[in-house]
Design brief:
Elements: H1 17-30, H2 35-42, H3 50-69, H4 76-87, H5 90-93
């Protein structure tokens, strides 16, 4: 898999880059920002700014991440969304809900 980055090209091979991107994706998910919402946000930023370039690279990475895990994997950030969707069904609403958070 190879993606074309502009701002992060030199950083992509450096130690710690994956961890930084992982943390950023985690924040996107925490605040319910998917790649479509990120793309909309980017439209509000000056396209000549460094922020625009960085957000565009993050969008490229995030979009690829979403396409790679789609329908194959679930990460911990998705569990809350699945629970809320399931909670709306009558079957789950009539039952007690127990959550087991393991440390």
């Amino acid at each position: 898999m190879s993606i074309n980055l502009h701002t992060f090209t030199k950083l992509a091979g450096k130690s710690g880059f994956i961890e930084l991107v992982d943390e950023q994706i985690g924040e996107f998910q925490q605040y319910y920002i998917d790649s479509a919402k990120l793309a909309e946000l980017i439209k509000t930023v000056d396209d000549k700014s460094v922020l625009y370039q960085k957000l565009t690279d993050l969008l490229t990475i995030y979009s690829e991440y979403e396409s790679q895990i789609a329908k194959k994997y679930i990460d911990t950030k998705d569990i809350n969304e699945i629970f809320h969707r399931a909670r709306r069904t009558k079957h789950l609403n009539r039952r007690h809900r127990f959550l087991d958070k393991r440390i």
